[in-house]
Each structure stands twice: as structure tokens, then as C-alpha cells.
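quick one before i forget lol
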Amino acid sequence: MERALEETTVGLRFKAPKTKHGRRIISLPPSAVAVLRVHRLKQLEMRVALGQGKLEPSALIFSTFQAAPLSPDNLSRDWRRAITRLDLPRVRFHALRHSHASALIASGLDVLTVSRRLGHGSAVVTLNTYAHLFAKTDEEAADAIEAVLRTSREQ
């Protein structure tokens, strides 16, 4: 991520991320890349059909028909409408970030990788926010050390 979009009283503007850790490259899974490519193709087809021509290679993937950035307020409004229409739980758009982090933690990904992906300045921030998801039971800890001790006795 190289820049963030904010809505000001005079309109939309791009700005640098809040911290140096916010400036990062985030890999996407192949399935997400495939969906984004289909979206871009449909976007281009619609623009051509409307007589607006091709997009610049640097154009945003999600934008207005005129290739302008989407207003964060409008995105939130559209998100609320979509989840209502689909009868999904009422969660804020930003909650997707937390769902993403929770899924990564549940998959067993280490805290440092999760922290970097989220753009946190320190893994401590991630641990403070998601500590409840990293918690293992004491019984699991006993089982883990038992497995290590068993392996070392067998050698």
C-alpha cells in the first residue's frame, strides 16, 4: 500500500499512510487476483460501451465510471446496503480487516507475519489487539512440551 484516501471538507485526497509500517506490499491469493481481473475486464467493457474509452494502467480498480476514487462514505453506505440486501450480519466495512487478521491467526500464521501484513508498527500492537485469538489452553501447552520431551528421549 503506497497511499491512503481520506475524505476532507474540500473533497477526496490521497495521503501517505499514517506510519512507515503502513507503507507495504501485500500479496493476494490467486483466487482474489482472478476476481479482480474479471472485475477490471467488466469495468473496461462498460467504459467502452459508454464511450469513455480505456483506463490508464495506473487507474484504481475500484472507482467511479470517470475513474475517480470512490468516496469512503459512499463505500460504507454501499456496504451497509449490500449486507442488508444479502441478509448478512451487520458489521462495518472495517471489520473485514479484523476478520482477515483473525483468519490468519486461526490458520496458525505467526504473529510477526500477521503484524506486518496489517501494517502494525510492532507485533506487540497485534498481540494486544488479538491476544485472545493467540491464546492456547494450558493443557495444549502441556501436550506440546510432552511431545518435545518424548522426541528428545527417543533420540
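fyi The first strand starts at residue 4 and ends at 8.
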